[in-house]
Fold this protein.
Amino acid sequence: MQLTGGMATGSAAMTRQQKYVVAVAVLASFISFLDATVINVALPAISRELGGGLASQQWVVDSYLLTLGAVILLAGSLSDVYGRKKVLLAGLIGFGVSSLACAFAPTIEFLIVARGVQGIAGALLVPSSLALILANFSGPGQGRAIGTWTAFTSVANIAGPIVGGVLVDTLSWRYVFIINVLPIAVTLFLLMKLEHDHARLPGARIDYVGAVLGVIGLGFPVFALIEQANFGWGSPVVFVPLAVGAVALVVFVLWERRAPQPMLPLELFRVRNFSVGNVATFLIYGALSLGFFSVAVFLQQVAGYSATWAGFAMVPTSILLITLSSLFGRLSGRVGPRLFMTVGPIVAGVGFLLMLRFSGEAPYLTEVLPAVVVFGLGMAITVAPLTAAILGAIDPARSGIASAVNNAVSRVAGLIAVALASVVAGMTVLDLVGFHRVVLVTALFFFAGGVVSLIGIRNPRHPADPAVPEPDAQPAPSGSSA
């Protein structure tokens, strides 16, 4: 499955077509990642103008994550059936239109719906952009191209809060969405320079039933978790969607077991490191989303930080991730991922325990910075070994769907975690007591991720060891966990 023009050789120099491929892949993913990180610092300003409390802020974040998480696996099927270029084109146009709808939203309800549409479009961007690289590069060239792709998505994690904060303070929160238009226009121009898509694959189908069951199974429980703070657990508005969603999830699993081309191939979870790694991913990235959401809201609404300074507050974490992740990735390749997947989340959890020291003013140098640095170090230890453990456990021919599944797990974890914010805080408006409760729960989730990794992850055998395969794991190819 590749674009006309063929897969690249392992030569050092990229062809003109490959440069276009990398540029399109980087820009398309950058847009999606930037929008996911830029929104948190804009939430207080959105609430001031459009109204709504913590539940509304949760929905502005979760409506995007909900549709993105529910559609991201389906996007892989769409690429196989209709072609990556067509799917990227639809995603870019949809993202641009929905971004403008968000920018000019007259009410909080309109904004939430527009964010949901934006999430659908975003789901079309990330898997298809990475698939472009995999289809057009091989050997060392593929590694370099993926490294470039990863570096720029990391930059989005730094740029998002800073750009968002500056725009909110100097112009308006609405420009957080308007800024998407220019990079989308550039990406569309470059996309037109790519060669034609592959032909439709014979027999390729889209798992519509699985997609619908997944949306219901995720969306209804999340709605219940967010709205229970307003209606209470005993209200039909809460317990009916919670029950319907739970049933839909059970039916989803049963359907995926028998579907000829399932949206979620369940046999992947028979591989030990893949299944355990995804449980760890759920806990770690759920904690990450809950923690980042709460810190961004607390620093502005309680501690009185401007949106700009709230954006800069977490920059040390991103810097540590970019500078140290490759180091811990190499170390993981030598000694195995288990140690780092155990220690890293625990260190990150300690960083959040340090946030229990936050006072109402939260002075940055004495209270915020130490916690952020410890947390960032923990994430730098964790991320690369976690990815290596999960993808290294799966045959390279299935690395694409394995990556999509892991991406979906992390998105769904963030979705559920943010939905739980008001439940954990025990209130509709976050204050110091509620924030301390949230960061304690966040730390416990990180610790749980470390314990799960300690118990469940197995280091790949050294080449000198006897090559006796485990009954529940596929042997990773040589060097796959590096």
